[in-house]
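Honest question from a wet-lab person: if I give you the sequences of every part of a complex, can you actually get the arrangement of the whole thing, not just the pieces? Trying it with mine:
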Amino acid sequence: MEFKKPRPTIDPDSKTYWDSAKDNKLMVQYSLDTEEYFLYSKQLTNASDSKNIVWKEVSGKGKIYSFTVVHVPAGPAFKEDTPYIVASIELDGGARIISNILTDNIADISIGDKVSVVFEKQDDDFTIPKFKLEK
Amino acid sequence: MARCQSGYVEDCKSPYGGSIPSRASKKVKIMDKKPCIVGVSDFPLQDRGRAPEGNSELTIQKYCAEEALNQAGLKMSDIDGIAVAGMWGVPGPGLMQPNLLVEYLGIKTPKWIEGTNIGGSTFLVHVNHAFQAINAGLCDTVLVIYGSLQKSNMSRVLGDRPALYSSQFEVVSGLPLPVGGYALAAQKHMSTYGSTRETLAEIAVSTRAWASMNENAAFKEHLTIDEALQSNPISSPLHRSDCCLVTDGGGAIVITSEEKAKHLKTEPIYIKGFGECNSHSSINYMPNMEKLEIASHSSKLAFKKAKLNIEDIDITMLYDSFTITVLLTLEAIGFCKLGEGKDFVKNQRTAPGGDFPLNTNGGGLSYCHPGMYGIFTIIEASRQLWGKCGKRQINNPVNALCHGTGGVLSSSTTLLLSRESS
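Yes, you can. This is the full assembly:
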């Protein structure tokens, strides 16, 4: 089935994230100077002055920082998914990322719940790291 | 050009050491120009917030500019500074709105031009910057202006945003924007502090009650807490009644120096203090989603500049893109402690007759929201200070606080206005 949802406009700060997802790996950025993990923005770190940034694979485990159950979708491409969950997830190590939580029971989700990554392949060129609740 | 704290030119220290020689040998006191608001207007809407047929974003702005100038007793040719921003006309001339508006309105040789766009808080920033320009003598009379036809053009949608830069992750995930961003903050606030959907409903209901007294409001019908709670879910925990309207609209503000204002038709409203701050573009990078720290920063700067305390404020206009925006802003500015907003807004405290008059025009929730609402906080505060608000007029307010929030809780601007010069 053709993937009709928006694709990311991949740029130098997101390329490794999306490329590694195709290999079922979750990679985020890491400051060797402040020893902090992050993805894309240094706003949540003290690494503004850091020049020593590398990409590191992380476990894909973390917890829900906040979430919303979406009833009115972000465009027609998401309509058949409603209601669906978009969450801000704090990965172990500290990076905060946004993705979907996959669950059959949307009423049973809370801030702080533990989650782990699952890789949802859309087509040969595109895999999205999503998350499921840990048992 | 930096001016000395003392106001005396010859006291200035050169960055290369020593004093900068002043042209006059004797001390020359620089006039401290006090910028004032002297005219405002908002565009009359009909049919749930629609502009009458036959209008464009430009005709709306021309109408507002002329009304605001008329109120002051000024002409378009008196304008020598302009500030404008909007979200229309892109790609194309809308990317450079100051050029388009100067051309359309026929403003000759403006000396000061401002086109910052940081979302809904933009026009408060424009007034802040206009203050600095007039105060520094860069120009005399500034027009701050805005217009939008987003309802008529049906240009407002929750999706179809490009998955670009830091927002690419949330767009790929299907976060409806901007509401989903505010929903994440609301969920975090509820989880952290125990606020509830009832807390947010209090704000929706009180704002509607104010709108019932504003002829130009799109929604004037009585709203109950139960009706608000039962409105359709959009992006939990936010429901329809928590979300601002989608309307057309426009507004204008004319600012000039105190000396000039003395000869005009309106009583000058002094711009006493201001502050601005921002932190992120994507909601995911808001440092702590349960508190609007940028509003704490901007309001602190404003109170310091104005030499006013929070107890001095008689009337408050907070950008209400969503009910949660108001709750976060009340706490961040310090009207109550963090987490205590749920008690602060209880029992319709912010409604007509309550002891905290808030968003007396009916806000973005019930009056109008053409996409960038910030200008209307200043327009309503000015009218309240002039005593021109009819049925919804507050008894003799002297000091007003306006606060704008732009993007997804991304930018904050606070403005303190007063009928008293010092």
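Two things worth pointing out. The mean pLDDT of chain A is 96. Chain A touches chain B at residues 5-11, 14, 39-41, 43-44, 65-78, 81, 83-84, 86, 88, 96-100, 110-112, 128 (CB under 8 Å).
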